[in-house]
Amino acid sequence: MNAYVCTYRRKTPEPKERRQTEEAAKRDPLLRSFLEIYDRSYYDRGDDPSFFAAQNRLGDVRKASWGVCRRDVRNALTKGDLVVFFCGSQHERVWCYYFVGFGTVGDLVRREAQWTNPRHAPYRRFYNVLAKVEGGRMFQSETFHHYHDDWKRRAEAPYVLFDPKRSAFNLTSPHEVAIWNGAAVPEKWARDDRSKGIERLLFVERGIDRRLRTFEFGYGHAKLNLVSAGGAARPGRSIPKLVQDLKRLV
User: Fold this and answer.
1) Of the candidates 182, 184, 214, 212, the residue with the CA atom closest to the CA atom of residue 198
2) What residues does each domain of the chain span?
3) What pTM was computed for the model?
4) φ, ψ for residue 34, nearest 5 deg
5) What's the whole-number mean pLDDT along residues 85-100?
6) What own/partner pairs with CB < 8 Å and gap ≥ 24 does 109-118 have?
């Protein structure tokens, strides 16, 4: 079983990106509502993982999907694997980090199946589909600017559907665990009991020295494999036990 920690960014978009997305939102009332609340939300700019669409189109945030970012992680996942998500929220040079929960992989869908299998039809209206298939050909299908030049490569990795019965997300009031002030990495974690519990479960007891922020510039947040490092197994409780304990902290 694999388990990863991944941080997505609630970044401040460039003015041009904002204008272009606002133009697209004129034809999509739900997208307009996303943009209206985005600055005070805990969503990824491209809704990937798709917490907003899952809540508003399927009525359950636990039915989120993941289909654009972290191609390498999506390629490595199998059914039953775990992904722990943090939201990095940008306020100029300061970033606040929130524990939004975890998803257990319920299904891994290839793009062709996403557009041909009726079972996956509800996800075709999500904002993280990245690509659509028509007449046996794949075409880029992105809502948020700026578009990805490497969309074909990203689309080669599976579209991840999380199992709502074994996932837990809090996008309403996620717990703030850490802050980074733009100086040296890593971020500084809070010392309240809940933050310390999350830090202990994911990092301390597994012998992991790094935290969420790994670089001062660029994307800044490398993925973290909780199960192994360089082929060697990490210490710590089993993944099912980790899920059980994390659920109490979401």
Assistant:
1) 212
2) 3-247
3) 0.96
4) -60, -50
5) 94
6) 109/158, 109/159, 109/160, 109/161, 110/158, 110/159, 111/138, 111/155, 111/159, 112/138, 114/159
